[in-house]
Design a protein that fits this description.
heterodimer; A: about 425 residues; alpha/beta; Rossmann fold; 2 domains; 5-stranded parallel beta sheet; two-stranded antiparallel sheet; 17 helices; B: about 290 residues; two-stranded antiparallel ribbon; 12 helices; 9 strands; elongated; disordered N terminus
């Protein structure tokens, strides 16, 4: 969005005072207004025409006073239905009404990078040494400080909204100098609020707290009437009573309950260390779920072999063969790991990295057995998909449907798990892959 | 869905404007949003951290407008139909065995739920559907028609119960489940931000009029410091702050001692693990 185009849009001839979009205040206002709608849709917030019409209705009824602040608050309430999208709203709103570009994509990336320096491979030793000098908090603080200075300087020289009667919402009269003058009520100026981007932390692709994961995990269920304490079946009781010539006869059915069994197996230690907190979050979210019939968790190191550990500290374990035998095949299996290891760890007999693991069977064979037994299974990878490189990731990715361990990724993985159709059997194990 | 929603709706008296109430401080934005949802006659969906006053807001809207409040507490077993009416078939079946009641009048076995009561109320009412996300994921979808048309059909009697005056509907959600899109498209959405310290000062003032200024400043300072601690599972919220200040006042504590552990920290932090994290954060930082 170029700023020149915005300036044109902001300067309709003879528009003064409040006006709704359906008003005859010239086509440019409509363009500016439409930009908000299409800007949001382009940014991935699928505002529906119905919601847009509702906003138009709200403006037409005159229920809100004509100011940019009101448009910011009410527009958001009517168009945006999740706080995860508030940040996008702020950006688009600022983009449309301040005439600025949407400048934040870069800083977003940088912040992400600062948050997880281990994830970006290929840093030179000098770069690493530089990073070491400052603590992460300190680095982030300085970075934000710098960013703030820049925004302020940028803002200072900016025209933004309200160069006298140009805004369709008539902020103008009291606000000839631009954004530095507060609105009539001394309130915050809407574009400034938008520029603050207070809602960045609510973005879906960024946050990953226990609660958000728990919400995603709730979708993992399989409802059926099988066991449980019976409840009164009213239709059945009426039927039986009628047949019984009016003498009361009660019928009972088992309740409709979630029959899902879930098995979570997580890679720990080694290359998974940077993702410890992420995995902990997933683990606590999963173990807090009380709507599953059964939940079990196991740990492994790099790749599952003949034993899976029920506790990593005490070393308690269960034979993988036993798990395959005793857990029903309809159990949902979630494997979590970066799938990155030395090829020999996956493919060779005696390939396991730990000395106590003396399995002659290679990790890939164990994985294939798990995949064949548990037809509904996924692999969750904590790395971002663009870093899914390497031979072992490729081999495992062919065997298991692999999803990133993020809110969206977990959601997709669960959609895959609960699909009605029966998933296809795994591809046959290619013996040429295996090594001695 | 009709593209001209005004056609099916009655007009709203222009005087119906909510500006907060004595026991609820509302920001200007919130007032705007509430009034727009009243003017548009669309349900207002409230979401926010637990303890930010979602239920309280509904009460304040009712008292501020001088309207009766009907609350529908949603539970995990709640069905959409329960809010409209419940047909007590078992009671009727039971009564049919003894001839002391006229079981042919099915209406005596129809009990209106909160939605039905709000519709059949003579005047306008405020209906709060509390914690809509507690119920099954399909629950909001099952309510779409009733909330759009503000009427429902009683199958057992063939009656249609339609709202004489459309109630003001407020729906609260703790975000435990994603709500369906079709439902979201029809509502006005407001996310209750966590109050900043200035607004929090006013909120505390409502609960403890004339609270010592120094104590207030110190308490809020400590409170926000605690909320800023990284890694807490459950950050302390407004209601916990109120409890904490009540505890401080009851024991005559004025928070003047510095550096030591916060008194009555148990009212603010409820999880053992969080407690450990909070204590850890109080210690001076060691540099690598």
């Amino acid at each position: 969005m170029s700023s020149a185009a915005n300036d044109d849009a902001l300067r309709p001839p003879g528009s003064s005072g409040p006006s709704g979009p359906s008003d005859s205040s010239g086509p440019t206002n409509k363009m500016l207004f439409g930009k908000l709608f299409f800007g949001l849709r382009e940014a991935g917030v699928k505002v529906s025409p119905t919601e847009w019409m509702t906003l138009c209705e709200a403006l037409a009824t005159g229920a809100l006073e004509p100011s940019l602040d009101a448009l910011y608050a009410v527009g958001r309430a009517l168009l945006i239905k999740h706080e995860a999208h508030f940040d996008t709203w702020d950006q688009v709103f600022a983009g449309v009404f301040s005439g600025g570009e949407m400048p934040v994509a870069l800083t977003e990336e940088l912040l992400d990078w600062l948050a997880s320096p281990l994830e970006r491979p290929g840093l030179s030793p000098e770069e690493l040494a530089e990073l070491e000098l400052l603590s992460l908090d300190e680095l982030r603080r300085r970075f934000l400080e710098r960013l703030e200075e820049q925004t302020e300087r940028h803002d200072g020289g900016n025209r933004w909204v309200g160069t006298g009667g140009t805004s369709p919402f008539g902020n103008s009269g009291s606000n000839p100098a631009g954004i530095r003058v507060g609105g009539a009520g001394g309130g915050r100026q809407a574009v400034q609020v938008a520029e603050m981007r207070r809602y960045r932390d609510y973005r879906n692709d960024r946050i990953l707290d226990t609660r958000a994961l728990a919400v995603a995990l709730r979708k993992l269920r399989r409802l059926s009437r099988r066991d449980g304490d019976p409840e009164l079946d009213i239709d059945g009781s009426i039927e039986l009573t009628s047949k019984n010539a009016g003498e009361l006869e009660l019928a009972f059915v088992p309740p409709r309950e979630n029959q899902a069994r879930v098995l979570l197996a997580m890679d720990v230690g080694g290359s998974m260390t940077p993702y410890t907190r992420l995995c902990e979050t997933l683990f606590s979210a999963a173990s807090a779920q009380n709507h599953w019939r059964k939940f079990e968790s196991f740990f492994f190191h790099n790749c599952p072999y003949s034993r899976l550990f029920s506790s990593m500290t005490s070393g308690e374990s269960e034979a993988t063969a036993e798990i395959l035998k005793s857990r029903p095949p309809e159990t949902f299996l979630l494997l979590v790991g970066d799938a990155s290891m030395a090829p020999s760890e996956l493919l060779s007999a005696h390939g396991a990295i730990d000395w106590f693991e003396r399995s002659e069977t290679s990790g890939l064979v164990w994985l294939h057995r798990l995949r064949s037994h548990f037809s509904r299974c996924v692999w969750l990878n904590p790395m971002e998909p663009q870093h899914w490189r390497g031979y072992t990731v490729e081999v495992i990715g062919k065997l298991f449907p692999m999803y990133p361990l993020s809110i969206d990724g977990l959601g997709q993985a669960i959609d895959h798990l609960v699909k009605k159709s029966v998933p296809p059997p795994p591809p046959p194990l290619d013996p040429r892959l295996l090594r001695d | 869905m009709t593209l001209d929603p005004t056609s099916t709706k009655q007009s709203v008296p222009a005087r119906l404007r909510w500006t907060g109430s004595a026991d609820y401080i509302a920001s200007e934005d919130l007032q705007r949003i509430v009034n727009v949802s009243i003017a548009l006659q669309r349900p207002l969906l409230l979401r926010g951290e637990p303890g930010t006053g979602k239920t309280l807001l509904a009460k304040s809207i009712a008292s501020g407008l001088g309207l009766p409040l009907l609350t529908w507490h949603v539970k995990s077993t709640t069905k959409a139909k329960d809010g409209c009416y419940v047909y007590d078939a078992v009671q009727r079946l039971y009564d049919s065995r003894f001839q002391d009641k006229d079981v042919s009048d099915i209406r005596q076995y129809i009990k209106l739920g909160p939605l039905g009561q709000a519709f059949s109320n003579a005047g306008r009412a405020v209906l709060l559907i509390d914690e809509v996300d507690k119920a099954d994921v399909e629950f909001p979808n099952d309510l779409l028609h009733e909330l759009d048309a503000m009427s429902f059909f009683v199958h057992e009697t063939g009656d249609t119960i339609a709202a004489k005056t459309r109630p003001i509907v407020i729906i609260s959600s703790n975000n435990e489940k994603e709500l369906p899109d079709a439902f979201l498209r029809r509502v006005v959405f407001h996310y209750i931000d966590f109050p900043d310290d200035e607004l929090m000062g006013r909120i505390v003032d409502v609960h403890f009029p004339g609270l010592d200024k120094d104590l207030m400043t110190r308490a809020l300072g400590q409170f926000y410091q605690l909320r800023a601690v990284d890694g807490l599972r459950k950050k302390p919220s407004t209601s916990e702050l109120i409890d904490w200040i009540a505890a401080l006042l009851a024991h005559g504590h004025d928070l003047s001692g510095t550096g030591e552990e916060l008194p009555f920290i148990g009212t603010l932090i409820k999880r053992e693990r969080d407690l450990a994290i909070a204590r850890d954060a109080k210690k001076p930082k060691k540099w690598r």
